[in-house]
Amino acid sequence: MSDGQRSEQQAQQLSQRRRRGRRFRSNQAQPTTARRDRATSRRNAGEKPQRPVQNGKNDTPPSHNQNQVAQTSQQEPHNQRNKRSKPKLNTAAIEHAPYVALSIQSSGIHPSTSKLVSIDAVTFTKDGEQVEQFHVVLNSGSDAGPYHLHGLREDEIAQGKRFGEVLKRVDKLIDGRVLLVHNAPRVWGFIVSEARRAMAEAARANRQRGRQKRRQRVGHVPQPKEIVDTLASARRQGLQFADTRVLNVARELGLEAPDAKANMARTKLSEAETSREQTLMIARMFFVQRAWQILAVHNPEDLRADKFGLQRSDLRIDATHMPREFENPGVYTPERGLVQGMEVVVAPEIAMDPDRIIEAAVRENLAYNEKLTRQTSVVVCNKREDLVGKAMHGDRKGIPLLSDEEFLRACEQVAPGKRLKD
Asked: Does the chain have fewer CB atoms within 10 Å around its N or its C terminus?
């Protein structure tokens, strides 16, 4: 390349750089001019100019309205989560079958220390016609308990499902319906405990999952419209029975039911057959009790677990934790009556709602205890023969028994007690 050609090429490159520079300066001037025009208009309108943005952030403190917008934007995800937490109800299906009867089999007595091994449920119309049926055997991966409790062999339980696998199905059956159970504190306690355990396991798995894996969504704690307890309803009717099993209570109500005692014929039945028998009997008991207009109904929102996992009322659980202000004067006697500080235990065998007894005890500065101890002053129980449970142990310890009506009358004249020293 000659010197003349090289000089001509350099001149062309210089010209191109100049043209690019003019375009760049022209583009930069436009925003500056626009900012100047906006600032001028704000000054004319009496507004304060905004401070320049530094490091991507505006140094000007946000106004009240800006704070509200920021708070709203932060609350929106939480509100959306709350909306998602509400179950989507199949209104048509619930209106057609507003009741669901449910029975369970478990590895032990208390939800806090035991697991479910089976669930059986049937939905019903208002007239008592069966609509939907459900039965599942559960494998918790832990000790299933003795065979005589549930009637399931180890190989049957080994093939069962995890509760997290069926929770959505259970939610669909229970949500929005009236739940019919026998012994609500225990049955509902197991359902709530298992649901929360499954949700906790899913949450742990989601925290440990890889980015490519989908989140586990196992369901939620079921949300029934209300819970009807057929066992408590039978007690509200004043029935006295030592055997609280479904079939025996049904016979006490005058229903035709097989003998609840073990026999050769019943040992040949499978767990699915005996569980379905109990579920259908619970429904029959409910429809009879509904006709008599004597029902023990619970709002699930007013219940929470006690230390055993049993679902009790807020009032009942709070009463067990109330600080004691008076010394325990000892055992109740008819001569001196109730005295502030006496310890009261309520047995299940009463006709009134236990919360009514507990509320009266707390109001009169009596100490309520869920468990019978040597410091117990009186046991509220309507039975006087064939005693079981708390009443039986209280009678053996020489602790007097008062019926629910006798106790409320005694609460009308409670003697002042001796306050505890600080």
From this structure: C
E-state strands within 224-324: 226-229, 296-298, 303-305, 311-313
CATH 3.30.420.10 range(s) for the chain read 91-301
Residues in the chain: 422
CA 329 – CA 61 distance, rounded (Å): 65
Strands laid side by side in the 178-181 sheet:
130-137, 116-124, 99-106, 178-181, 226-229, 296-298
Q: How many CB atoms lie within 10 A of CB 172?
A: 19
* pLDDT for position 82: 36
Could you please state the CATH topology (level 3) that the domain comprising 322-413 is classified under: Rossmann fold (3.40.50)
3-state SS, 71-111, equals HHHHHHHHHHHHHHHCCCCCHHHHHHCCEEEEEEEECCCCC
Q: Taking the model in full, what pTM does it have?
A: 0.77
- Other beta carbons within 10 Å of 132: 14
Q: Are 312 and 241 in contact (CB under 8 A)?
A: no
360-381 burial, b at 16+ Cβ within 10 Å, e below that, comes to bbbebbbbbbbebeeebbbbbb
Options 3.10.290.10, 3.40.190.10, 3.30.420.10, 3.90.1150.10; CATH for 91-301 is 3.30.420.10
Mean pLDDT by groups of 10 residues along the chain of 422 residues: 52 55 46 51 51 43 41 38 62 96 95 95 97 96 85 91 95 97 97 96 83 77 97 92 92 90 80 95 97 94 95 96 94 96 96 96 96 95 90 94 97 95 72
Any bridge partners for residue 419, and if so which? 326
- C-alpha–C-alpha distance, residues 387 and 351, integer Å: 16
